[in-house]
Amino acid sequence: MTKQMHLAAHFPGVNSTTVWADPRSRSQIDFASFEQLARTAERGKFDFFFLAEGLRLREHNGLIHDLDVVGRPESLTVLNALAAVTDRLGLAATVNATFNEPYELARRLATLDHLSEGRAAWNVVTSSDAFTGENFRRGGYLDRSDRYTRAAEFVATARELWDSWTPDGTSRPFAHSGQHFQVSGEFTVPRSPQGHPVVIQAGDSGEGREFAASAADVIFTRHGTLEAGRIFYADVKARLAKYGRQPDDLKIMPGVTVVIGDTDAEAQQNAAEIRRLQVSPQNAILALEQVWGRDLSSYDPDGPLPDIDPDPGSRLSQGRAGLADPLVRAAEWRALSAAKGLSIRQTVIETTTRQSFIGSPQTVAAELETFVSTGAADGFILVPHLTPGGLDPFVDRVVPLLQERGAFRSEYAGSTLRSHLGLAEPVWKG
What we know:
Layout: E1 6-10, H1 31-43, E2 48-51, E3 59-60, E4 63-64, H2 75-83, E5 90-96, H3 102-115, E6 120-125, H4 130-133, H5 144-162, E7 174-177, E8 182-185, E9 198-202, H6 206-215, E10 218-221, H7 226-238, E11 251-256, E12 258-260, H8 264-278, H9 281-292, E13 317-318, H10 326-340, H11 344-352, E14 357-359, H12 361-373, E15 379-382, H13 392-404, H14 417-421
Parallel strand pairs: 1-2, 1-15, 2-5, 5-6, 6-9, 9-10, 10-11, 11-15, 12-14
Antiparallel strand pairs: 3-4, 3-13, 7-8
Helix pairs in contact: 2-3, 3-5, 5-6, 9-11, 12-13
């Protein structure tokens, strides 16, 4: 029997994937953009719609990065509005466990779960970013060793709050005293339609994998190649037993991009053009500066890489994930550039913007099915390169083929996100 995959849609925002210069691209703030992509995902019978988080505008060389979007709406507010214009689609918000508090966030998530009749999800992320932390009263940031202990206690505390109402609608006082949180009182929101909102975790570190195995329902990963996916999949699934969990209790869903053409050759041409649009001359220099940590605006993006070394201690870019070793990355880029005769822009294109699946609808459908059937993923979170219409080609041309193969649902079997994902409602722990 063919194993059915899970599909979700990521609303593109601040990343190196979105092509804002395309005339079909629309606002990342207007509700119409969110609504269009969500309705497309629901038309395709997707499991959920996924929003990232932006707690501070990113800066480069002391200024707001003018090639980024300016304006990041708060995710739960957007999803509450989307609950009114969708019927079955899950609604997932990325919310930081470092800069929030359990009672308030548990209340907001439970409210979304009620308003959507059981379709809420929380993507739990952490932060070690002092630049972002400056926006918050507590300030600063948590050491890496403390981020996941706080996140684990945060999720456990939220679940205690959700369980403080019995399934028959009776409220009970709660009290939690731990390393990071001391809270007590009575929770204001009754138990929600799916018991608890679905918990998603994004992170590939050892701590992140262990946290996902112990506490998450879905893990969002960047391992988009077949071999890397199989290794990651086997590693995370093997960690579940120690927590008394079964392999199907945690769904592994890599974030992927898809480029489609009438033929495989046309799709390759389309992908090459998209990569050039994603890496404009200005973005090529920006990417170079993020590695080198220096102002390289005088360099020609169609010329060779700099012969000077990176500044490992630079803080030229703020609000982006840092490189573990810029000197190593620069050496890799130089070796690639020399071997293939690549310019700065060509090197950045070669190293930063690979699409995951490229081909005709038939080719893409077959490759997606291979990933799932051979233990590299349980499904995929699609990240289109256009807002908000980038998902339409996949829904119109690939989803019907997956349905014909029996690899994806033709209709929703239930009404809650847990039912879409094949997850049992959590046992009440009163």
